[in-house]
Amino acid sequence: MKLDDRTAIVTGASSGIGRAIATEFAREGANVVLADIREESRASGDTRTTGEVIESEGGNAVFTQTDITDELAVKQLVERAIETYGGIDILVNSAGVTSNNSVQDVTDEEWDHVHDVNVKGVVRCSKQALPHIRESDHGRIINIASQRGLRGGDDTEKAAYVASKGAVTGLTRQMALDYGPDGIPVNAICPGPVESGMTPIETDEDEQELLDGILTPFVGQPEDIAPAAVLLASDGGRFIHGHTLVVDGGYLVK
């Protein structure tokens, strides 16, 4: 029970990596505030909500519908966490969107939306949660970036997404400098190819394309990312500051 009696907000908690992190946090004893724009999972095969999964395992969770591009909605999310559990120890900024255009073709609206969610969403949530995280003896912020923010996309036409995730890694380092002296480690996780609603596997060709880019004989699952988040959120992560933890099946080295 590495996170026993701690309260965590996880954005993007209804599907994929956010769902896996929220579920694993609950298994480790955390009270989890699930934030997403919709409660139902976007991934095929997920017939239960994240909250239902956590509650079926005896954990504690509450869902709050949240659009992280809306400052008021984020403020209400934080207020719900305080009202329900009395404080906030951990923030996981996992909500994200992607896009599929090159610089030449991306529209201003598309570019702005991707950065509004992937970058400004991290800023909004952190800004609202930090006053409460500062009161915790176990304060942590974990930002979900991407290996594409370090290397670029394996495929083409990901300009807005790659730029946004590169921004998240830089923002994480600056936040670590700003809040590390307050005893709040701020770190990022850069997942590699992970099967999810954002990266679905619908054909054998889809699976083989992902396998060709990594070293493992299997495609990563959201559950492969969750243990890294537990480490960073737990006492075992107290000396890790401003780090970008790559969990990618060997994508970068290959």
UniProtKB/TrEMBL annotation:
Keyword Oxidoreductase part of the UniProt annotation: yes
SUPFAM superfamilies per the UniProt record, alphabetical: NAD(P)-binding Rossmann-fold domains
The EC number(s) this enzyme carries: 1.1.1.-
A GO term for molecular function: oxidoreductase activity
Keywords from the named record: Oxidoreductase
Domain of life, source organism: Archaea
Classification via Gene3D superfamilies: NAD(P)-binding Rossmann-like Domain
The family this protein is said to belong to: Belongs to the short-chain dehydrogenases/reductases (SDR) family.
PANTHER family, per the entry: 3-OXOACYL-[ACYL-CARRIER-PROTEIN] REDUCTASE FABG (PTHR42760:SF115), SHORT-CHAIN DEHYDROGENASES/REDUCTASES FAMILY MEMBER (PTHR42760)
Record protein name field: SDR family NAD(P)-dependent oxidoreductase
